[in-house]
Every structure is written in structure tokens, then in C-alpha cells.
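Page 47, continued from p. 46.
Same chain as before, 766 aa.
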Amino acid sequence: MALERATIFIEGRVQGVGFRPAVFRYARQNNLKGFVCNTSEGVYIEAEGNPVDIEKFIRDIKNNSPKQSIIKKITVTYSPPLKNETEFVILESKPGKKIQTELSPDIATCKKCLEELFNPEDRRYLFPFINCTDCGPRFTITKKLPYDRKNTTMVTFRMCPACFSEYHNISDRRFHAQPNCCFACGPEFYLIEKGKIVKKGLDAIKISAGLIDKGYIIAVKGIGGYLLICDAENEEAVKELRKRKKRGDKPFAVMARNIETVKRYSYVNHYERNALCSWQAPVVILKKREDCHLPEEIAPFNRYLGFFLPYAPIHHLLFFFGQFNVIVATSANIAESPIIFRDGKRDMEKLLSLTDYILSHNRPIQAGCDDSVVKIFEKSIYIIRKARGYTPETLKTPFPFRKEVFAAGPGEKNTFSLGRESSIITSQHIGTLSDISSFNFYRDMYHHFIQLFGFLPEMVAYDLHPDYLTTQFAREMIEKKGISGLGIQHHHAHIASCMLENNLPNQKVIGVAMDGTGYGEEGDIRGAEVLIADYKTYQRYAFLDYTPLPGGEKAIKEVWRTGISFLYKAFGKEIFNLDIPFLRVIEEKKKASMVEMIEKGINTPLASSMGRLFDAVSAILGIRIETTYDAQAAIELEMSAGITKTSGYNFGIKESQGRFIIEPSTVVRDIVEDIKRKTPTGKISYRFHKGISAIITEICKRIKEERNISSVVLSGGVFQNLLLLNMVYRQLKGAHFSVYIHRLLPPNDGCISTGQAVISLYFMKG
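Result:
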């Protein structure tokens, strides 16, 4: 049989996942000659041999690629064979005209590396940087593509002869593992006390574990940045950490020694276990056991705990040397500032103010990256914060486009996105851009992504909110670079992002967007609207009635203000005669002041917001009248709900200028009556959730009847509430709707930039 030569080009997530070594092995197994190499666009292969063997080789690649890889396209062309090749080899990477390939996220330490880590006979016994082609840092150490050691922060660590031999040995697990290293040639940990290095190597790790046992707080440098760590069973240490971080009541994440330890404190079903033990190793939100003895300070007023398992060798070693079984492991930052991941003087000073000791190492982190947070809904991952393990990830668009787009994202729970041709890359979770440090992190990551993926933005998309730092950054780019820009309505971006990740074509859908704050075209505050939308346009069909927010943004934290406002809207001046516990704890002067502000329109912007309605009900029920973190009142309202057979509250609805207005006052009045009847808070909360589900379903039914649209897309931070999401999802399904929710992106504002990108791309399409 005549020989032939196949040129194969593979696109997708094919770098940093052991793809070239796998191709090399399959080529050898199928007796092929030629080569494989990385390029800026993907993996390039030339394979020569028997046509049957080439076909088998291509099938092997398609069917048995490394588990973390994602093949999105394979292009094969054939040509006459060459005469002088004698073997199949891996060549040096080739720079391309443009960067199209995807980069692997960071991968949790694999089982084989863990076996070596704790095998006294292995040369990497207790080595804190152990990795192979199946695991280890990827995104956070990569400076540019193609993914080669010289393009990572491992470039300064020259492989010793033993590691060099592994790297070039086809039968070795570390064949072409770019971060490959050992005690002789790799990075090193060191312990810092009062700004000075006091121990290095394994002794530094052993001492750190002992310090955690004694109740100290340690900053530990990991994969994507520093974590603040203390013994989770030491109540005083947890309290002190909360105080230093200025954390308020926001829950801490807890890292457990193993899955069996997690089960001592929380309920874990099959799907939650799979998420905990996955190579992404996210924080998984789990229901707390009734006999859980962990300090309440870890997650005050919360029935759930966020657990995750060790994902880096250093975590495994701390548990190995320590006596503790669970540790608080939270991002090293203050309040909403970005995670600390660099080792400069200013960052070290910040860490020293937060901790007693610092356990650091000398491998630089190129891109700071928080831990991902997920829940399980309907047997699948439901992402709350998308970062380590899930970033970067490329989403395909249902259409190609001509220009390269930068989507700046929102001001809170920020991500940004880059789009070109038929794909969108979204950044890791950046967070709230509230000060110069958070904005600097955002700007640095933007420049990193631009270089990493070779983008040259020709259009900028941004949120309509003029005060967002992201919007100001985008407009400055437009002015200075003379490129086109497009302001995109907040909830349209929400809906478009969910459409995209569900691979929906450009069709009309019913978009239900529920959150706290989204800016409208008229400068109004929106947080609860039902849209008829596609990728390019949207029509506002229904929305929650506008209610004043006394004190503006103050009402978001002092939610008793919102409670007063909703009560005043429902009862008017009769509010002063209502006898319910909530109003008894609010001073008469404060009540009178709020009413006066509302009546005179003094610093009382109007808001159509489901988030604010949740805040108000939480306050009226006496659950939470002031908050210390975002959505606390709403979360604790969800926590209070008791599952019971009862009807939901009935929202009023009226039509005005062709739109439907959902009126909450009927619900507020019914809640007050239930309070007077001493109805249990859990039942009231459940009825409230059920009422929201019912009105959403009712509006969707009206649209279906009028417009013959049966696809419903759910997005917005309110749908992080799984009690409500489950009600809405099942009720809509029961009414024969096709229901689409987020899986690859968070339902909160973390999805906004993706939506901005796809809308602007479609806008350019014409």
C-alpha cells in the first residue's frame, strides 16, 4: 500500500494538557513518521505512513485525548510522502500569525503525583511542587503562548539531569511536562516572620503546620495567590481572622483533609462528591449537618458551608505535617480587594497586617486567580464564582464576526471578555472594582490577556452605568484609541450570555433577569424585568414596580430603610400604626425621617429591583436589618424558609403603556397580616419565594400566548437562590416551556462581559 502524508491541525484546549506527548505516543504506536509541535493557533502535526495507520492515528487522537483537553476542530489535508524522515518527533513550538489556541486552567494534583508525594522511596517524596502532564499550574504561570517552559514563570528554573531525562522520555509521565522539577532544580518554600525569612524548605512547611495547630494565622502562597489559613476548629483563630480581614458575616471557605472529613460536617451527595474530587477542585456549597461542631463564626446565620479539598501539593503537605483536619482557607485580601499574589514590598506589608506568618515560595505567579465556587443544581455544576480550574475557557458563538472586541464587564463580580471570529474568552473572577488596587488588578489582567491571546480590540462594549470604573476604562480606550464603542443594557447582557452558553441561535426568547442593580437606558435602576430578547435587540415586557430607596446606596447595606420604603408604599401613613416587631426596633425619628425623604423625594432614587424586595422582606421579618456583605439579607431569607405545603403570596399586576407592572404591595400587606397572626417566619419566607415563582410563570405564559415564544432564559444574581431557582425551573417546565439556565458562567454579574461581547459581535454583524 502506498504511503501518504497527512497534515493535521487541531484547535481547542490542546496546550498545557499533555496533548503533544499523547500525539507522540499514538504516532509511535501506529508506526508513523513526522512531527508534532505547538503553534500560536493550536497543535500542528505532519504524519506519514500507511493510510490505514494514519486513520487509526486520527481516531486515537479524537477518542483518547488527555482528559483535560477539549478538541474543537480538526483539519486534515493529504500530500505526497517525504523520503528522508526516519522517526516521529516533538519539535520546538512555532510562532504563528495570530494566537488562536486555548490555554489549560490550573489542574489539581493527580492521584499518581500524590502517590509519589507520600512514597518515602520516591525522589519527590514530600516535594511541594510535584506535577506532571496531568496536573499542576497552567494558566497562572503562563506569560505567553505557545505553552512552553520558556514562556512560563518556570523559565528561571533549569531542569537537573534527572528531570531533563524524564522530560525527554516517551514512557515517562513527565514527558514534555513544562513545569517539571524536583528538589534539586525547582522552586523552594520559605517561612517569613516579621518580614524576615526564618526557615526554608520542608522545615518551613513543618513549622507552618505546627503554627496553625497552635492557633496562628498563616498566609500561604499557592497556585493563584495567597490564602489566609487557620485551624477551622479553633473559634478564637476564626474570629481573629474575620476581624483582620474586615469580613463582616460573609462565610469563609473550609478546606478539609479528605472527602471523609467533609462528610463529618456536611451532607454530600454523589454529584457534590464528584465536584469536590474533580480536577477543578472548586469550593462546593454543602448543607451543614445538624451535629456539625465547627464554629458558627465560619458561616454565621447560614445553613450551608463552602468546602473544598487540597488541590496543590502544599495543601496536602500542611495536612500531612499538621494535627488539624479542617482549615479556613480564604483569599488573602481585605474586604472586597483582589487576592494578593505578588511578592513586592507593598503586598508583603499587606500580608503582614493580616497574618502572623507568611509561607511563601520563589515561583512567581503571573495571573492572580481566586478559588472557584459552585453549587449543584439538577445533578450538575452551577457556578457562582468562576476562577481557578475553570478559567480561561472559550465559548463558541453561533456566528463568525469581523472585528475583535473587548467587553469591559460590570462594576461588581467583574469579569471581562475578549471576542473574535467565532469565540469569546472570559477572564477569571476579578471582583468588585471599588478602589485603586482592584482597578489596577483589572487593568493588569486586561493587558495580560491581550498579550497572552494576541488580541487587538477594534471595538469596546461596556455597561450603561456611568459610575462603573469599567465603563470609564472603556470610554477612555474609545477616546484615546479612536475605536468604536457600544453601551449595552445590563439585563440584555445577562440574557445574551445565558443564550450563548446554551448554544441558542439568534431567536426570540423570554428573558427573566432578576438581580439587585442594573442600569437602564433612562438612567433608572433595574433589577427585575422580563424581556423579549435575542442577541441584538430586546423589548421590556414586564418589570417590578419602582420603589424609592431612602439614602440611595445606603439602603443596600442598611436594609431596614428598604423595609420602611416597601411598607410605606403598601400602607402609606398607616405605617406608623403598624404593630410588628420590625417597626418596634426602628426609632420613631428614623421612621419619620425615611417617610419624609420618600414624600419629598430627597435622595430617594427609584428602583425596580428584586434584590431590594428580598432585602425588604428580610428586614420586615426581622431576619436582617443591616448587612455586612453583598446579598446577606436575601441569603438569610432563603436560609429561613421552611419547606411546607402552602400557597404563595399573590403579586398584583397592571398594564401601563403596553408593559406589565408587577406590584409587590399586595405581597407586603399579606406578609404583615401573617406576622400579626404569628405565622412562623419559615412559612412566610417559603410563601414569598413561591409567590415570586408564580408571577414569573404567569408573565411567561402571557408572552407565550401573545407571541408564541416558549423558550425561557433565567439569569441574574437572584437565581443563585436555589430554592427560588428550583421553584421557577420546575413550574416553567410543568407549563411546557424550554428552560435555559447558566452552567458555564455564573448567573450573577460574572456573566455580564460575555453577554456584552456576544451582543456587540452580533451588532457588528448587521
